[in-house]
Amino acid sequence: MKTYKIALIKGDGIGPEIIDEAVKVLDAVASCCDIEFSYEEALMGGCAYDITGDPLPQETINISLNSDAVLFGAIGGAKWDNLPREKRPESGLLRFRKELGVYANLRPATVFDELINASSLKPEVVKGVDLMVVRELIGGIYFGEPKGRDENKGWNTMVYTREEIVRIAHQAFKIAMTRSKRVCSIDKANVLDVSQLWREVVTEVACEYPEVELSHMYVDNAAMQLIRDPRQFDVMLTGNIFGDILSDEASMLSGSIGLLPSASVGAKIGVYEPIHGSAPDIAGQGIANPIATILSASMMLRYALGEHVAADKIDAAVKRALKEGYRTKDLAQYDAKEVCSTSEMGSIIANYAAK
Ligand code: NAD
Question: Is position 130 annotated as part of the catalytic site?
Fold first, then answer.
């Protein structure tokens, strides 16, 4: 039997509720896949600040680096919004990604047939959508120097090195090899020098993946194509800021933010987390949708641990729960047979996953 050590960062708001359900499902699937998980909890975000005075205690980094993977809930809330920037929960999260060196953010956007009416787009446009945004996460304009502001001027620098582009491009091509073998690289090469280098380097890396079809698209067109005809995309490869915007746009194709998982990878230890925040407006009410976190746990099994059978079981269990009409409150108006709590949804999925 294989044993994996998982660092659990529950965080703030709904974080603890949704992580508890993901753990329930992981334990259920472990029992039938001859694997075992040991968990170690670590603090991050507002709760970490309240206890230690730091939103990212060193101990959290140590626990994470000493694990096989990190399963993360969400951080943040109004209570900590007025702290100095470096003490805010969000600063802890940015620093965490940088410390771990997870430079690639993978965000799948899938439309479940059962929830086709939950999308804000027409069913005939979104039916069958299954795309993956591969976003560079720790470079680009969010980190580039010089940056700053004075009273009358603010400035940031969009910068990518060849090395940074090469490594994120490899991630995208490798993922495309496990999917429909198409990569669309997004840039603004008609205006930005940094994008011209991006396009050149991605094209060079593509030569190492002759089976993968590469296309390039300007970011403004990509924003339009995502809602005009999202099925044209398989893997979308982007820099940090373009990916931030496009992956949020792509997430809306599926209907609820509570459905979408993500993985931040590229270093020894990856971080697996739902794309949504800590949802303080619904925290503690038992109505949060745990599916995004449960699917993040499935991504963890697939990408960090290579446990594809267990991951497939979780994905199938989520589909089955939705097909049978179980819905949390956020999706209650879409063909619900039964509206369930966070914990009930976790138990239903765990039960199916264990079969
Ligand atoms: P949010 O994603 O927390 O919530 C947006 C809306 O979606 C809310 O109405 C919320 O109730 C709903 N929602 C989110 N997750 C849900 C779920 N699982 N089930 C049902 N409904 C869900 O975004 P926000 O309100 O802009 O931010 C709240 C806090 O979260 C802020 O402090 C923000 O900085 C933080 N945040 C953290 C992360 C992270 O931890 N990775 C990401 C984004 C925002």
Answer: no
User: Once rounded to an integer, what is the mean pLDDT over residues 9-35?
Assistant: 97
Helix (H, G, I), strand (E, B) or coil at 217: strand
| Single-letter residue type at 209 | Y
Candidate of 257, 281, 334, 343 to mutate for ligand 1, largest count of ligand atoms within 8 Å of Cβ: 257
pLDDT computed for residue 97 by the predictor: 92
Q: What is the pLDDT of residue 248?
A: 87
Query: Rounded to an integer, what distance in angstroms lies between the CA atom of residue 34 and that of residue 23?
Result: 16
The answer to whether residues 346 and 20 touch, using CB atoms and an 8 Å cutoff, is yes
pLDDT tens digits along 118-155: 898 999 999 999 999 999 999 999 999 999 999 999 99
Burial of 90 (0-12, 13-18, 19+ CB in 10 A): middle
Q: Residue 287 phi/psi, 5° resolution?
A: -120, 0
> What is the CA 230 to chain-centroid distance, rounded?
19
Give the active site residue among 20, 54, 244, 312.
244
pLDDT for residue 94 is more than 90: no
Residue type, 268: K
SS3 content of the chain, % helix, strand, coil (to 5): 50, 20, 30
